[in-house]
From TrEMBL:
Keywords: Membrane, Transmembrane, Transmembrane helix. The lineage of its organism: Bacteria, Pseudomonadati, Pseudomonadota, Alphaproteobacteria, Hyphomicrobiales. InterPro entries: HupE_UreJ (IPR007038). This is Uncharacterized protein. Pfam families: HupE_UreJ.
Length: 206
């Protein structure tokens, strides 16, 4: 064996003996808690339906009414999370989730002109409820600040995107409720209400 190959083999053996645990993933930097807070609600049916329905409702009422939700809803999520962590408070149950989805669907289907203040209160209360529900995923080693930041940003992005899409499609400033766009949004509200009824039936049956 040539001296070069002998040296290369020796160097390879030395490198292999120094192998340790690889810290190449973001979880080791505790950023995994941030992504857990952001992704968990987007993988839960109750959160997805409630967040999308709330964004549709805000978008169907116009930009002036809906823009407050961009701040109020994430604030409600963080408040609910903090309440649940601090007092082990449980604000949700399958039946309450179903009733919430049903009410949101009916509001969408009825095309009611909800005042800005009332809409903001509804968004904050829903945020508190869903924030408390997501606290159930916290583990003792979870960084609560990162988890809350991920949850709040997910709420902000979801509400903003859904509301923007609803505003673009619905055009509440120029299209009447009786237009086909308004009817389509109301039909979506009917489907949301149907999901709420189905969830209520399943909850009562179990």
């Amino acid at each position: 064996m040539s001296p070069f190959r002998r040296t290369a083999l020796l160097a390879s053996v030395l490198l292999l003996t120094q192998v340790g645990i690889a810290d190449a993933h973001i979880v080791s930097a505790r950023l995994g808690d941030f992504y857990a807070g952001a992704l968990h609600p987007l993988l839960t049916l109750q959160d997805v339906v409630v967040w999308v329905a709330l964004g549709l409702l805000a978008g169907s009422l116009g930009a002036a009414s809906g823009r407050w939700l961009v701040v109020v809803f994430p604030l409600g999520l963080c408040t609910g999370l903090a309440l649940a962590v601090g007092s082990a408070l449980t604000l949700v149950s399958p039946l309450i989730d179903a009733a919430t989805i049903l009410v949101l669907g009916l509001l969408l289907a009825a095309a009611l002109r909800i005042p800005v203040t009332l809409l903001s209160v509804i968004a904050f209360v829903l945020g508190v409820m869903r924030g408390a529900a997501n606290a159930g995923e916290l583990m003792p080693q979870t960084d609560r600040l990162l988890y809350a930041a991920g949850l709040a940003i997910a709420g902000y992005v979801t509400i903003t995107l859904v509301m923007a899409l609803a505003l673009t499609f619905r055009r509440p400033e120029t299209e009447p409720v009786s237009s086909w766009r308004g009817i389509a949004v109301r039909a979506a509200g009917g489907w949301v209400a149907a999901v709420g009824l189905m969830m209520a039936g399943l909850s009562l049956a179990s």
